[in-house]
Write a structure and sequence with these properties.
heterodimer, A: alpha/beta, FAD/NAD(P)-binding domain, five-stranded parallel sheet, 9 helices, 24% helix, globular, B: mainly alpha, 5 helices
Chain lengths: 419, 105
């Protein structure tokens, strides 16, 4: 019997497992290793603080998400011994593999920034990348009457790069609807040179923060938090005082990746951008947030990559070369408050463009533009996630990014022609 | 796209001054860009950063972030701010002939 072992039963790992279980030859065993008993639907974490979703509805028992034929090993991975094709679990038990799929995601590391985990953690400083963080922020917002609310991304890359914008828009809309917007100063603090960094998106959406009275502090690299004074500090000594700090801490790959020497300095694994095979190990696939690839760390990416990994696993098993190619495709709804959302669709080469998605003319989802349709789409996606995506059923959106329905703004198109 | 004269060559840059084609970069071009952004002379420490950025970007497909530069180039965060005032992440990428660090929108 040969072994295909998947590490991590989040979006990427679960999808790959469920897609593979009916396709693997009968002499292959399919195992997935994850210590957590619950599966968290992460896109809902931005809604919990504003009571747009209950904490209970964001999680489901992991058992029900893994189909028949998948052996779930409910243990913590300690290390991968890639030279001997073995996964070492807590307690030193070993699981051998012929093919390994690493899908252990990306995790916040607030301890990387001095002061974040101090006395104000979950009192006036909140993350929204964990359910505990989102719930703590919800509880604080219940009694919040006004002050300086600072949203800060410590450094890139982060999971769901649009989430800091979404939490800002949702907070602005929440304070307005609560009738306290005039008492709140909202500041978006980013290490990038603006809230929008791609030329076409910047042009289409650049005014939206200004329109909503949200200030931007750009090229800000946070170094520490002065907890006593409630001030965020940067390496170039800019002080940003806060009454509430919504932090997007440093993200890193799983601890065992660091301990196994498989990752870069943030414990993300160097991965071939097209085949999704680890650069240094030809029997290890990597997908989802665990890779070092220059695309978004997002559920849609995990889904598109899952299809590529499944194809390439089957090619390798047949003794063929890995033919399936990942193009960097990502698409993300961006909640913009007041019951509306935007949508972006892009890949390694193509920045987000305006237009409609997924069908030309009829869409129904407008790209790079606010719409109620997109907000409904985002909410409807919950159902698609649990009942189609995670179980590995086909979803009617193309795996590779398509230019159908997209429009290049005339000026940029003209530039491209004369270039 | 604007075309500028750097070190005797015509180089295409975008509206913010970043090279459109990274392969047009030469050390002389780096010196010219540096002057343009107010860095009078590139010293050994600057070159450590530039060399790391170019090598890393060739492997990764994107310019390295500040943490990555400070951990791997031999130049620490504080010094990065002295060498490339007003935003070392962006300026190091620009002088290295790389695109600016970007988000997804």
């Amino acid at each position: 019997m040969k072994n295909l072992v998947i590490l991590g039963a989040g979006t990427a790992g679960t999808t790959v497992a469920n897609m593979l279980r009916k396709k693997l030859p009968s002499d292959w065993a399919l195992k997935i290793i994850d210590p957590d008993t619950e599966h968290l639907f992460q896109p809902d974490l931005i809604f919990v603080p504003f009571e747009m979703q209950t904490p209970e509805k964001t999680i489901r028992p992991r058992k029900g998400t893994l189909g028949k034929g998948i052996e779930w090993i409910q243990r913590q991975v300690q290390q991968v011994d890639a030279d001997n094709n073995q996964v070492i679990l807590d307690g030193d038990d070993k699981v051998s593999y012929d093919l390994l799929v690493i899908a252990t995601g990306s995790h916040i590391r607030p301890e990387e920034t001095p002061g974040l985990l101090g006395d104000e953690w979950q009192k006036s400083i909140f993350d929204f990348y964990t359910l505990e963080g989102s719930v703590a922020m919800r509880d604080a917002l219940k009694t919040f009457e006004g002050g300086r609310v600072v949203v800060n991304t410590v450094e890139m890359p982060i999971k769901c790069p649009v989430a800091p914008l979404e939490i800002t828009f949702l907070a602005e809309s929440f304070f307005t609807e609560k009738g306290i917007r005039d008492n709140v100063e909202l500041i978006y603090v980013t290490p990038l040179d603006g809230a929008f960094t791609k030329p076409i998106a910047a042009k289409a959406l650049g005014g939206i923060l200004d329109d909503r009275g949200i200030k931007v502090e750009a090229e800000y690299n946070a170094s520490e938090v002065d907890v006593d004074r409630k001030v965020l500090l940067s390496y170039d000594e800019r002080e940003v005082p806060f009454d509430m700090l919504i932090t997007i801490p440093t993200h890193m790959g799983a601890q065992f990746i660091e301990d196994s020497g498989l990752g870069d300095d943030l414990a993300f694994i160097p991965t071939d951008r097209h085949s999704l095979i680890a650069n240094n190990h030809d029997n290890i696939f990597v997908l989802g947030d665990a890779t070092d690839l220059p695309t978004s760390k997002a559920g849609s990416v995990a889904h598109f990559q899952a299809e590529v990994v499944v194809d390439n696993v089957l090619h390798l098993i047949k003794g063929e070369s890995p033919k399936a190619v990942f193009d960097g495709h990502a698409n993300c709804f961006i909640e913009s408050g007041y019951g509306r959302a935007m949508l972006i669709d892009f890949n390694y080469e193509q920045e987000p463009l305006p237009g409609v998605y997924p069908l030309p003319t009829v869409g129904p989802f407008p790209l790079l533009k606010e719409s109620k349709f997109n907000h409904w789409g985002k909410l409807m996606f919950r159902h698609v996630y649990w009942h189609a995506l995670l179980p590995g059923h086909p979803i009617p959106v193309p795996n590779q990014m398509s230019m159908v329905g997209k429009k290049r703004p005339p000026q940029l198109a003209a530039d491209a022609e004369t270039a | 796209m604007p075309v500028v004269e750097y070190a005797g060559s015509s180089i295409e840059v975008n509206d913010e001054g970043f090279l459109v084609d990274s392969s047009q970069w030469t050390p002389e071009v780096a010196e010219a860009i540096a002057q343009e952004v107010g860095i009078d002379e590139l010293n050994d420490q600057h070159w450590k950063v530039i060399t790391f950025c170019r090598e890393d970007a060739a492997k990764q497909g994107t310019p390295p972030g500040l943490r990555r530069i400070s951990k791997n180039s031999g130049v620490n965060m504080k010094e990065l701010y002295q060498l490339f005032p007003k935003g070392p992440g962006k300026l190091a990428a620009m002088v290295s002939g790389l695109p600016k660090p970007q988000g997804c929108i």
